[in-house]
């Protein structure tokens, strides 16, 4: 990597791991924006708007750095499923996703205040769940993994057993479409490969 500083504006350990696996040199400074301040709209626009707000929040404090903001949501029947608020909420989400196809959207934004640049993208992946029994849902919720995860599951964790197939980017479902992020970092001369 060259001299340009990169900041990940997220405390997600999954996003951190994905960027590290891609060999990106960066630091983590989580954004403190209140996500509930944003109204729900078309899923791709919503995640782009939220990821840009996160990136701009940190870019204001570090204007020389390139900041990466991201947000991931699960959408089924036009309804956005974010992180479950309780055990019962997680069970309800998993029952709704059982034996069905849903969409995972991750919006990401890269910005540098000093360069007056912001790039916003949204990536969509289709995910199909197997038919889940009540016992499987109970076991999975009791693992505590569904909490702090959009749609109440983690494809990269225990939740791997509930995903029958995906169509699109796997890393997008984990929380950051690494291929697309790295392509932009290279195109913008933020990193060199």
Which range does the strand content fall in? Answer: 25-35%
What is the class in the CATH system?
Answer: Alpha Beta
Total strand count, please? Answer: 7
Mean pLDDT: 93
* CATH third-tier fold name: Maf protein
Treating each run of at least 4 consecutive H or I residues as one helix, how many helices?
Answer: 6
Encode the helix/strand succession as letters. EHEHEEHEEHEHH
Which structural class should the secondary elements be placed in?
alpha/beta
Apparent shape: elongated
Low-confidence stretches: none
Helix content: 25-40%
Computed Rg: 17 Å
Give the distance, in angstroms, between the N- and C-terminal Cα atoms.
Answer: 7 Å
How many strands, what sense, and barrel or not for the largest sheet? 7 strands, mixed
In the residues, how many domains can be counted? 1
For the record, the CATH architecture stands as Alpha-Beta Complex
Oligomerization status of the protein chains:
single chain
Summarize the model shown:
With 193 residues, this protein is an alpha/beta fold.
